[in-house]
UniProtKB/TrEMBL annotation:
Coiled-coil intervals, chain numbering: none
One Pfam family named in its UniProt record: Cupin_7
InterPro entries: ChrR-like_cupin_dom, RmlC-like_jellyroll, RmlC_Cupin_sf
Organism listed in the record: Acidovorax cavernicola
Name of the protein described by the UniProt record: Cupin
Gene3D superfamilies in the cross-refs: Jelly Rolls (2.60.120.10)
Domain ChrR-like cupin intervals: 26-123
Length: 137
């Protein structure tokens, strides 16, 4: 599924709506590598910089994030694969393609991509992305 324009130009409180179209066809995305085989392609801003961003993020199949939290709200749309989250109640919630979830700031959890297929997400925040390791319960 090619979905480079599923949610471009989402305005947040800190990101005013653009005055011109934002166009990000899949074949023009500039993918960059992160640790663990994760890749991202910025649409607006910079996921690893400061300030608001909107980006596609791809996790390898079978990838598991350690127990962590984010200092800001993190909305995500799952475009392919099956992403998951495990909250402190121990329940594993699966998010197949077409799912949306919003993690409140400071919520401890584990997350990752189920085996079988890479997970492609669209994420955006009103300030920079972070992943703060936490002790698991």
């Amino acid at each position: 599924m090619s979905c480079a324009l599923c949610a471009p130009g989402l305005a947040t409180a800190a990101t005013p709506a653009p005055r011109t179209p934002i166009s990000a066809p899949a074949d023009t995305l500039q993918w960059q590598a992160l640790a663990g085989g994760i890749r991202y392609a910025n649409v607006r801003g910079n996921l690893t910089g400061n300030g608001p961003y909107e980006a596609f993020v791809e996790f390898p199949a079978g990838f598991d994030n350690p127990h962590h939290r984010h200092t800001q709200v993190l909305p995500s749309v799952v475009l392919s694969g099956v992403f998951y989250a495990i909250f402190d109640d121990g329940k594993k919630v699966l998010y197949p393609a077409g799912s949306y979830y919003l993690l409140p700031a400071q919520l401890p959890h584990r997350s990752g991509c189920e085996p079988g297929a890479n997970c492609l997400l669209f994420q955006y925040q009103s300030d920079r992305f972070d992943l703060v390791p936490t002790a698991s319960r």
